[in-house]
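Worked example 2:
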Amino acid sequence: MTADGTQPDRLPADLLAMAFDHHQTGGFEEAETLYRRILVIEPARAEALHRYGLLVAQLGRLEEADRLLGWTSASAATDAEAAVNHGKILRALQKPESAVRRFRQALVLNPALLTTMEGLGHAERENGNTTEAAQAYGRAALLGAGPAVLHQWGAALDHNGLAEAAVEALRRSARLDPTVPSVAIRLAGILHRMGRDEDAAGWYRRALVLQPGHGGAYVALSTIAATVRKSPSST
């Protein structure tokens, strides 16, 4: 019997199952010991590298996770999930250009994976590529992305000068989750710039219901009200 409570002749597959069980139930120290033991036996075992990389990422050791998931890609070049998880770690390390490459690799492997499109959109945005970000977020929306991604899609579309499309994306986000004041504020701001002040005012009011202390929304409403009072139709 070894120090981790396993038989010395356990097969890597058995050890991997045990490690994953410890990992899932919070036994991180035991899981790490087992992952290391597997990799002594089979250094290129992709599933162990992948799961061990996720474990050390959970523990805040992102540089180590980057190395492990990089080795995973060499051992399992067809694993889209590993590529996505590596992309997420690269984003956390503030390496958006490298993250874009990993998400695009995952996209080739599995074009219908929602997390790939979401991750690619975030990485492209962080890399300053708003056109590519908008395209990725749009594809994520087609795959059923949630309100947060739709919000980012609307922001990217607005940045690219596509105000009408941005309004529609943000309306969809608000329908899925009507409790986010930043969506209402952004939507109101776009509508105000488009000259649709009545609609904009409604969204600013909604934002103030959600976040009563938002000074910017009060100022914007006052500006709209002053504009309406000065307009010929109001006299």
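The longest helix spans residues 215-230. The CA atoms of residues 24 and 31 lie 9 Å apart.
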